[in-house]
């Protein structure tokens, strides 16, 4: 792969554009046509092409006049700008311009291609005698969240010889505009790279104006919105928004013709000290940190190249505000909404008066720091690389100089490139091009290539930097233009660029003779040196070998074809093989001969197997096999297997590639190869492996094919019995749903296993029956690794019986019949079958559907291998997760476990527990607990449930019920040792951090915090925080009770079932709990007291600072490790602290109790408690509000309002009426109380309130209203 030029776009109506910009080159027209053309001169309103459409182009898209004038280099005299998104091209000359927008069209062949068609043409100048000197197209990024990187619209920035820059923009300088350049956001490739800001720079002969990109982006969007609103409203006045810019007066250079803004850079310490010594002498002072500077590079003369540095943050930059010069009046010459242009001024519209030039801001002097002096050399252009580290400069001597931007030196020069045009291409390394040896997150490498177009020679060259060779050269013609924007979308930053795919072209070549735009594609490996470029070496080797192996390529292409029939493949391969055998043996490629022979044998095998599986071939009649022991095993596991099949029979999505359709011949050939004369199956993806196994064995398992003939054919093919066994087991385990529906599948599997076992090479002839057989071990490995529990158990049962029959017949020939035979192989099968039965029961339980309304999800799958690797707590962890998904209450599970204990104490056999064809959740759980008596012991199960619920609560703290149920499961644990460890782990892992945050928050605000503060500091709402603190009290009380009981009970011994004793992995939660250290009881009690205070404060909305109620010792002891010994408060209490504690008196609780009793309608009970309340004033104010709520309910919200009630409401004082309407009776728990009770309550309130109280008058009005209401009743 090498460099290439790709056509990606074509410009339409290019001849019309040229004739519009160069009227002198237009062919002579008839007199009447000339007259019409003069009268209908192109204006803003008349944007069609006039008489240009009269020319009839030829079929190839060119005309005779165009062919004659193709040699005229007209494009070199124009100002061109192509948008980085390639959707807009601007061609301008003097005061005229043409805009070409992208559109898609279908060519004659039906292929979609992008073209650039003229969307507007006309005159841009508004000042007399001014001409277009520079143009750039800036695409503005969309602010919509759904955007994926395409621009919202494109703004055209035009610089004029009069000094104006119009988007339109007001006058920035009175000198002509030399060059416009833009810098947009680039994602930093390394963490140390400074993130550059967006910027638009405008070069004048003696000044440089820079406009901040963010300010420009916002101003352009605001201006475009104003134009749209003004056009919709029919207005012709637009207020341009302000624009901020900096203006630098570039000094110490004679002539400046081009520039580049490098961006913000920071010197290293050495360069900072060097510059300080040069500028300030020996005693110069050096600042602590290097200052950030904006770097600018200019080319011209005296010196040849200049380097300017503007220190950021100093007083040098001037910040002025100028107005965007959008046309002062809107005309009908606005573009369509799709084009997205700003409004322009109508040429025919006369100015109302002489336009007054705005004030020109003075420039801030900026001296040149250093340069490259060459008195005879004059620079013509400068082109900055995308990474801002290098720059290419052209001069009038026909040289191209490569500059190091950071060091300010020339590092390379090319000769013979007069009038050269430069561009850069940055290429990223593909993910697969280099092995990630150090870290997968290692950043990708990038390479910079310099593109040089030499119009004098008509060639385009690509050079590797910094000292790389020329990697590409193309002959393109002498009149092209190299278009290199050097920027991307404006308005993009590090946040909005996430997930965007910026479709921008770096370098394009525009050929005016054909109107084609070409992009340059460069592979990354060309940047590597010759020693490292392994791909380049491979390319040369490939070129040498292209003339070899045509026959092999043709054969391999046919064999991998999707549509070629098997008969065609067989005939072609046979014919090629016969042709090779007839040739001279020395001239024949031996590898090709072997390929033909092997592929012919495979095609024959495919044909034979396919014929055996066709419906026409009737299977041989086999006697009904009665396998000893199988019926017994099926009777034992039949009910649970039936329940498992019912739970797993839900429909699923299937595709055409699933193992059910016929296996394509190319897939068959790709998985079988001949190596050393033997046929071997290549293990590929699981789906391909299953598809191949289904092709070979599914007909036999389903009873549709003759088993003996299929096995005989496969044995003659030379495939090893081990690989055939692997394919058979793969089909059986992966097509479980179909297997469970076929009653004869078990018998057929038994026959296939016996047939494969009898093949040569299956069972080792020297195998000792007291050793483990590799053949049967392969079957066990497949069963224990499979997540298809039902199919794995059936395969294990069948294989167990087949192995037992084989071993027994072998042992009878060696031992006497009186001896009872014992084999290690059979013992392995007993353990394996028991494990598979346990997994089947567990998987059936895990397959239970979640209750309605709960979020669904994939059913967790388990296997023998996964349970052994999950450790000693794997089973309990799986069941705990199921209990959480089922949203089962702790009380219900406790009843199930008690029933299980009762069944264990009874003498009911285990077989009767497995009659679960119609089992419910609890029965399935009892069955699983019976099969795992130690792994699912009550304390172990409760410990895992407790931990699962607290983990889920930590994910969603708003669900306070999860933490409450977690504490309930904790209380259900009988062993105080496990209970103590679980409590300590919960406190340290999940609780203490949020608990301390709640305490500090309440201490800070001095009362029960609001919902917003709770969410900010604790991570949950106020209601959830109240529940959380209540659970903390329960947790700490349980912890104290467990600590008190550990001395009375011995440490429990946690066991595992015998068949699961080899489990390896993480310890269970119960085992971790037993490893926890003992806690310090007084410290736990100290925390429990604080938790009770916090819970009471949140429940009763008390105003207190909880931590202030403790002395310094008590405060320091909070939130420490509960196992540590801390200094706690003694019996002697500071009197000041006692005074603070007395502020939190019981009177607050009594007032709250009185209010609650009245709220419930229990007035007599409330009056009894009221006698103990001390602060009557506060209680009176509280009860006055409650009385108003009762009266408001009777007058305003009652459903039985009478006329008398309405008249009473009208006679109420306005103050009382307004006050009643502000009441909310919905807060009352018992709003319907008798008027006598309300009257009595009002009297109590009047007695409690002093006469000078602010609400005393309202209480009197209330009493009158209640009495009047009683009279009308």
Automatic annotation (TrEMBL):
The lineage of its organism: Eukaryota, Metazoa, Chordata, Craniata, Vertebrata. Residues 723-1143 form the Rab3GAP regulatory subunit C-terminal domain. It is found in: Cytoplasm. Residues 25-67, 346-367 are annotated as: Disordered. One of its GO terms (cellular component) is cytoplasm. Residues 74-483 form the Rab3-GAP regulatory subunit N-terminal domain. It comes from Pygocentrus nattereri (Red-bellied piranha). Keywords: Cytoplasm, GTPase activation. Residues 346-360 have a biased composition (Basic and acidic residues). Belongs to the Rab3-GAP regulatory subunit family. This is Rab3-GAP regulatory subunit N-terminal domain-containing protein. It holds the Pfam family RAB3GAP2_C. GO terms for molecular function: GTPase activator activity.
